[in-house]
Amino acid sequence: MKHYMYLAILVICQLACGQNFDPPPLNPDPLSNEGLTHRPHTARPSGGAVISGTTTSSANGRFRSQPVPRERTRVAVLGYHNFSATRPVSDMLLRTSELRAQMEKIRREGITVISMREFLEWRFGNLQLPEKCVLITLDDGWRSVYTDAYPIFREYGYPFHLFLYTRYLTGRGDSMSPEMVRNMMANGASVGSHSVSHPYPSTWRRHQNAGQQAYHAFIDREFGDSRRYLEQHFGQVNTYCYPGGYNDEAMVSRLPLHGYVAAFTVIPGKVTCEVDPLRIDRYMVFGTDHSIFRRAIDFGTQDASSRPSSSAQPGRVAASAPPPPFPVSPKPQSCVPSDVPTITAQLSGLSGINLSTVRMEVSGFGRVPAKLDAASRSLQWTPPCRIYMPNLSVHVYWDSTDGTHHRAEWSFSIDQTVTIDQ
After folding, report:
1. Domain CATH for 179
2. Cβ-contact 67, 254 below 8 angstroms
3. Which pLDDT tens digit goes with each residue over 359-413?
4. pLDDT at position 39
5. Exposure string (b/e) for 339-361, b if CB count within 10 Å is 16 or more?
6. Does the pLDDT value for residue 247 go beyond 70?
7. Which of 192, 335, 373, 397 is the most buried (most CB within 10 A)?
8. Are residues 272 and 338 part of one domain?
9. Which residues form the domain of 123?
């Protein structure tokens, strides 16, 4: 009690003198990126360097739940961008109060928040984690991460990982400075690369069209220069986040050449210890769609994106699958000239349908908040962000009034030549 009275008096005195009060660390991450070493591992995917990790779960007393065998753990990787207490929310900007509510929800649900090092040691080593875990990541380097999110993470004692693109790390305008990053690293933060210039898909494709040699040189600059800069300022860096989630085989194959052992996408889904370490799923938490966070921390259901596909190609439905018994848009097997396609299923021709059971799932998104118009029986959903996957499959489920279960599914592709820069 005396300790808290002392802190209160100290805050009042410092505020009166016009000084900033920086609270003491509550629960800084006991692990950091420093000291991780590379070694061969029989379970690694071909071409990937790995992290050593022989730590057992009993060595880390901060886990709130009992650790379980590695194969039983599922991790929800959360991705955030920008925050504000007052500015209008958008896909990339989350209300600060909503972030606090989400962190409180994680605490109440008893979900363990892990550091990036713990994640890597679990994936590549012998570390055991609780059954339900969350890994917090933040992209780009927005100043609001330092001013708005960082105090909340310190309050809850949650570690977090910053994916920074180096041209934005200036400290000017809305960007963070290297000093801010180092301050956070002393209290639970770790750092990964988000490229040099945050290229959008059309930029990657423009360099790809210049030929393989030119494309590889561009990839090497974005991967290599960013890692060298970050390591000069913050120590070892071995993780990467694809800007916008866009990636291809050339990028994936060259990541290990630059010392990266793990890379993250924007495709939502729970992560297991068998995940491809260079294409790790991540839930991007948008300010305009709170259902994404709810789905991320729901460990009671399986994500549609993680279920076995009915076709060998992700996002496609097998050619032998029957067509939907109602009109849909986009049409099955069509190619649409939009990377934000509105998906519609017209159910008015179905008889004896229990409307309360209708739901839609989309590959890479799981169950989506599709809106059903009861009068027209039109089911519709528009993605909250641009889609960088070439193929999408749609699955609509419903029950008849007699209790019979039904499913319709179809797939379509997105024209990759029409995507424009954001």
Report:
1. 3.20.20.370
2. no
3. 998 876 777 889 999 899 999 999 877 776 778 889 999 988 888 888 899 999 8
4. 29
5. bebebbbbbeebeebeeeebebb
6. yes
7. 192
8. no
9. 28-301
377 CB-contact burial (10 Å; exposed 0-12 / middle 13-18 / buried 19+): middle
- Whether 385 and 278 share a structural domain: no
The total of structural domains in the chain comes to 2
The reply to whether 294 and 382 lie within a common domain is no
The answer to whether the beta carbons of residues 96 and 317 sit under 8 Å apart is no
Lowest mean pLDDT among 126-140, 251-265, 357-371: 357-371
- Selected residue with higher pLDDT from 56 and 393: 393
Contacts of 95 (CB under 8 A, 6+ apart): 83, 84, 85, 89, 287
208 φ, ψ (degrees, to nearest 5): -65, -40
130 within a domain of the structure (yes/no) = yes
- % of the chain surpassing 70 pLDDT: 80
Q: Which of 266, 301, 336 is the last residue of a domain?
A: 301
- Rounded to the nearest 10°, the torsion over CA 363, 364, 366, 370 is -80
Question: Do residues 128 and 122 make contact, with C-beta atoms less than 8 angstroms apart?
Answer: yes
**Cis preceding linkage at 330, omega within 30:** yes
Whole-number pLDDT of residue 72? 93
Domain shared by 243 and 362, yes or no:
no
Query: Where residue 63 falls among pLDDT bands split at 50, 70, 90?
Result: confident
* Residue 292, Cβ density class (10 Å: 0-12 exposed, 13-18 middle, ≥19 buried): buried
CB distance 314 to 334 below 8 Å: no
Q: Is residue 35 part of a domain?
A: yes
